[in-house]
Design goal:
The protein has 313 residues and is mostly helical. The protein contains 17 helices and no strands. 64% of the residues lie in helices and 0% in strands. Helix 4 (52-64) crosses helix 5. The chain is elongated and about 110 Å long.
Length: 313
């Protein structure tokens, strides 16, 4: 026997939190693998799995024994739970809050569930109902429905029906995960909500440029661009389209706005093409833009500033 390898394989209690029952279950498995059945040796190796404070507690149990008789695993378990402050209420609430994992099979889940269920006193087990078990396997829809359909009276019967339903799932490859179903439903709801918003935006008209898809306070055109559009007659054209009733008549709902957008691109290209003309200097470019826009500086209180700029040039 390699004692170093045995010590490395021992489960440490600090890694299990307050789940003392699972720690003892794993400890007994390790002892069975190494064929250790002597109570003295079991007690010695169990002390290696706990911290210093619990070692002192276990030593006090050993000293109180008559004729150096070593305590059983059940007594050690009770003393550790007492030291950690684990009560029956804690065990009940831990079992009620136990949930099956996404990729966990129901038979494996039931093993852990039964282990924790038997760890509770018989009088307190009455507080655990079939509804608590159904809530634990709720992500698995088909076994949950089968348990509800049979109207089970106790936990043992509900566990048998759930395992039978899980075997049917595996044979038919019919597995429904409630978490994935819930996520898919959420994604569908978000997509539908976004589509409704887009439909509403298509019916919104800006009262500055008279285009669809935005409101006046979110208008994407500057004052210069709006003045150019007004001079070219684009805004008047948009107004006429609105007066025809494109929102009310079914014939004009699918009206093609490509020409209007093309005119908008042409109006924006005034600023670009004027810079590309090599035969025109900066002063002429400024005058072209000024004449195209109209620049009603009196409305903005900037008439004097523009005159100064022109005189300086």
């Amino acid at each position: 026997m390699d004692i170093c390898e045995l010590l490395r394989s021992l489960p440490l209690l600090k890694n299990y939190g307050k789940d003392v029952d699972l720690w003892i279950y794993d400890f007994e498995e390790v002892m069975d693998l190494w064929d250790i059945q002597n109570p003295k040796r079991l007690f010695v190796f169990m002390k290696e799995c706990v911290d210093y404070a619990l070692k002192e507690v276990l030593k006090s149990i050993e000293e109180n024994g008559e004729n150096k008789t070593y305590p059983s695993i059940q007594i050690i378990k009770e003393e550790i739970e007492k030291y950690l402050g684990i009560t029956q209420n804690d065990k009940i609430w831990e079992l009620k809050e136990m949930k099956i994992k996404t990729n966990e099979s129901i038979p494996i889940f039931n093993i852990n569930y039964i282990r924790k269920y038997k760890n509770i006193d018989e009088e307190m087990r009455k507080l655990i109902t079939v509804e608590d078990y159904i809530n634990s396997i709720k992500p698995r829809i088909y076994p949950c429905l089968r348990v509800l359909e049979q109207e089970c009276e106790n936990i043992e019967e509900a566990i048998k029906i759930a395992e039978k339903a899980s075997r049917i799932e595996e044979k038919l490859k019919f597995k429904i995960d409630f978490n994935n179903y819930k996520q898919n439903y959420k994604n569908d709801y978000i997509n539908e909500y976004n589509n409704n918003i887009n439909k509403k935006n298509n019916k919104i008209m800006c009262f500055r440029c008279y285009e669809l898809g935005h409101k006046a306070f979110n208008c994407k055109y500057s004052f210069k661009e709006l003045s150019i559009m007004e001079e070219k007659g684009i805004i008047e054209k948009n107004k006429r389209i609105k007066e025809k009733g494109i929102f009310t008549s079914n014939e004009n709902k699918n009206f093609d706005y490509s020409n209007k957008n093309f005119e908008r691109i042409n109006t924006n290209s005034i600023f670009v093409n004027s810079n590309k003309n090599n035969n025109v200097n900066e002063n002429s470019n400024y005058n072209i833009i000024r004449n195209a826009v109209g620049l009603k500086k009196k409305d903005f209180g900037m008439e004097n500033n523009t005159k100064k700029k022109i005189n300086n040039n």
